[in-house]
Amino acid sequence: MSRRSPAHTLPLSIFNLNHIDTCLFLNYHTIKHVMYLLQDCTTQAEPGSHERSKGDVMDVARRTPGNEEGDILAQARQPFPSIENMASYRRESARINEVPSRLLKERIVFVPPFINDEIANYLIGVLLYLESDDASKEISLYINCHGSLDGNLYYGLGIYDTMRYLKPEITTVCLGAAQGVAAVLLAAGTKGKRFILPHSQVVLHQPLSSVKGQASDIEIRAHELLRQRQSLYEILAEHTGKSVDQVMQDADRRRYMTAKEAVEYGLVDEVITREELAQ
C-alpha cells in the first residue's frame, strides 16, 4: 500500500507555483520534493502511482505557468540566494518590522483580536510609556477585538483602569469589532473622541467561562463571575448614561449593535465616514 503524503491535508494554494520564487532560499533537492508533492496533490491516481520518476517531476516544473524558460529550476539549483535577492529580502523585512514602531511614534496603539495576560501587560506598558514620553499629547487606541480569550475580564479591566489613570486624552476607534470587554475599552475613551467605522459592530454580552472541578470550586467561580458581571454593567452604565438595570437587561443575551446603534446607545460619539475624513 502506498504511503500518503502529508500534503493531502494542506490547501493546494500552498503549492501555487506562480509564487515559487520564494524557493530561492531552498536547495535543489527541496524543490524536487515540492514538485513531487504538487504532482501527488493534483493528479487523480491509483494507489502507488504517485511514485514518479525524476523526469516526471522536472516536467511539472517546466509546465509551470509563467516559466516557459525553465528559469525556476535554474534558480533553485543555486545553493544560496544571490546577494541582490538577499539584500532585497532584508529591506522588505525591515520595512514590515518598522510598522509597529512607526505607529507607536504616532502614538497609535492597536488592540489585537483577543486579550490575555501577556497582551494586557504589553498594552498597559505601551500606554504608560506614551504618557511618560509626553503627557500633553493624546493617545489613539484602535480596537478590533473579540474580548478576552478565556472569558476572564481582569485582563481587559486592567487596561481599562490604566486608561482612566493616564493624563493624556485617549481617542478610541472601533474598526471591525468590539465585543465584551473590548466594548468597555471603546466606551472608556475621552468623551467626544470615541469613534466607530460605518461597518463595524459592538457586542455586549455577559462574562464567559468554562469551569471544571469539584462542586465547591464551581460554586466559587460562579460567584466570582457574577461579581465580574456586576462590575462590567456598572462601568458600561457610567460611560453610556444608561442605568445598571438597563445595561443588565440589554446584555442578558448577546446584544449586537451596528455603528449607528452604538452611537445611539452611548458607547461611541460618532460614526466616521470617508467624507468627514476628507474635510
TrEMBL record:
GO cellular component, as recorded: cytoplasm; endopeptidase Clp complex
Source taxon at top rank: Bacteria
InterPro entries: ClpP, ClpP/crotonase-like_dom_sf, ClpP/TepA
Key word Nucleus present: no
GO molecular function: ATP-dependent peptidase activity; ATPase binding; serine-type endopeptidase activity
PANTHER family, alphabetized: ATP-DEPENDENT CLP PROTEASE PROTEOLYTIC SUBUNIT
Stated family: Belongs to the peptidase S14 family.
Subunit and partners: Fourteen ClpP subunits assemble into 2 heptameric rings which stack back to back to give a disk-like structure with a central cavity, resembling the structure of eukaryotic proteasomes.
Protein name: ATP-dependent Clp protease proteolytic subunit
Organism: Ktedonobacter racemifer DSM 44963
